[in-house]
Specification:
This protein has 12 helices and 9 strands. With 270 residues, it is an alpha/beta fold. The strands form 3 sheets. Strands 3, 4, 5, 8 and 9 form a 5-stranded antiparallel β-sheet that branches. The chain has a two-stranded parallel sheet with strand order 1-2. It has a two-stranded parallel ribbon with strand order 6-7. The structure holds 1,1-dimethyl-prolinium.
């Protein structure tokens, strides 16, 4: 019933993901700013997998739901979703995904550093890999498929870089679908170039710490300026920001398109 208030229908609950994610911290800010918390709204912690499965069920029965949403992600391909407008700009207008490296990597392993620096792709390309893994393809195989299909990108990423001769490169990442995709692609690119890449999934805090303490070489998982902004602030003198590997990412609250009366975050409290 579109004339019934939304809050009571969904227990004033925004369905979120893992507690450590930047989108969860941003949503806590949104709860204060709009002000949703004062109006009984709360953010439920879960995981990406639990959130997308709750979302799938709601959509199947055309029920209302509000989720933490971001792009690139296959949820926007599989479900009819729209971002809620964010007039207070709590989530920032647009995000970039950056590659970060330990200080000294450029000197110790200039070849791998060059490849990391030259690695850039767009949301459609990243989504290609994510959709494969979402359909059950092993991430390493999906990465390989992508590289085979995109020889021009591979050539750009590796242009002028020397062969690795077995030099190790340790990549850390946070196991979000987007970073599972980018990290596996990077590892496959490095391996094809003769480096010996290993990848390790960590929570967000230890991922940043791994680069800052030289325990790992690089990570492709830094959503900036907003989503991981606090980590960048904390670690900026201890890491190197290699630069964006993807432009045009976006973070916010999302609802199914059939929720016609809900178009901005302010509509949740009205
Ligand atoms: N995400 C996906 C992450 C970054 C990648 C938006 C869920 C977050 O920290 O919120």
């Amino acid at each position: 019933n579109p004339h019934k208030k939304l809050g009571p229908q969904i227990n004033y609950t925004i369905t979120g993901i893992d507690a450590g994610a930047g989108i969860m911290a941003s949503t806590q800010n949104a709860l204060k700013e709009y002000p949703l918390a004062q109006n009984k709204w709360q953010l439920q912690t879960s995981s990406t997998a639990a959130m997308t499965s709750t979302l799938a069920k709601a959509i199947k029965f055309k029920q209302p739901i509000v989720v933490t949403g971001w792009q690139p992600h296959w949820m926007f391909k599989k479900f009819p979703l729209k971002f809620l407008k964010d007039p207070k700009n709590v989530y920032g207008s647009s995000e970039e995904i950056h590659t970060i490296a330990r200080k000294g990597l450029a000197k110790d392993n200039p070849g791998a550093y060059k490849i990391l620096k030259q690695f850039k792709w767009n949301p459609a390309e990243m989504s290609d890999v994510m959709l494969q893994t979402n359909a059950g393809v092993d991430p390493k195989v999906a990465a390989d498929n992508f590289i085979k299909k995109n020889p021009k990108l591979y050539a750009e990423w590796t242009k002028g870089a020397p062969r690795g001769n077995g030099k190790p490169v340790k990549l850390t990442y946070v196991a979000w679908d987007s970073e599972i995709a980018s990290t596996n692609v990077m590892a496959e690119v490095l391996n094809k170039m003769g480096y010996k890449a290993t990848i390790q999934a960590l929570e967000m805090q230890p991922m940043w710490a791994s680069i800052a303490t030289n325990a790992a070489d690089a990570s492709l998982s830094a959503w900036l300026p907003n989503t991981a902004g606090l980590y960048m602030k904390q670690y900026k003198d201890k890491i190197e920001d290699v630069g964006p590997n993807l432009y045009g990412a976006k973070v916010g609250l999302a609802v199914p398109k059939y929720m016609k009366n809900i178009n901005t975050i302010e509509d949740l409290v009205n």
